[in-house]
Design a protein that fits this description.
Length: 171
């Protein structure tokens, strides 16, 4: 069992000074169990915050670079609650295999308001979403001379803005 908390130093100082933006602790919790020497089962939980957003239009076919901007403090941070369960097998000292299943609840997702017509309308809209899937990986580690890892992920993401839920083009 492990318990931890991540605190964003900038946000902590803002909270201590009374500046808007506030303190957002991010707890981390891990449970692990080894039913045998070569098998480990685990479950993780964590809360995560993000202070920036991607300003790119996902309907564009090509953009030469990503435009990233801070989320206005009055709107709060993007936030996710992440749950993971997994199993790690280590049949010998050289090889291991891992499988994980995860779910993330996404809150306060920020996006550019592409339907803005008038100056009094907000530049941004905020929504929610979900992300879930599975990751599988196999590792062979023979020390300095040879290391190999192969992995595969299968996942889905949905976003909901203005009552419409959709799969983003580039999830």
């Amino acid at each position: 069992f492990e318990l931890g908390v991540r605190a964003d130093l900038q946000r902590t100082f803002q909270w201590l000074s009374g500046t808007p933006g506030g303190y957002s602790p991010e707890p981390r919790l891990t449970f692990s169990y080894k039913p045998a020497d070569a098998v480990a089962l685990y479950a993780n939980y964590g809360i995560y915050h993000q202070h920036v957003m991607d300003l790119n239009d996902e309907n564009l076919v090509f953009t030469p670079f990503d435009v990233i901007a801070p989320i206005p403090e009055s709107n709060g941070d993007e936030e996710s609650y992440q749950y993971v369960v997994g199993c790690k097998l280590e049949p010998n000292i050289l090889t291991s295999a891992k499988i994980e299943f995860y779910y993330k609840k996404l809150n306060n997702l920020a996006a550019v308001n592409l339907e803005k017509v008038y100056d009094w309308e907000s530049d941004y809209i905020f929504g929610s979403g979900d992300a879930y899937g599975a990751d599988v990986s196999f590792t062979y580690d023979a020390g300095e001379n040879l290391y190999s890892q192969v992995g595969y992920s299968y996942s889905w993401t949905t976003r909901t803005f203005n009552g419409t839920t959709y799969f983003p083009r580039y999830d």
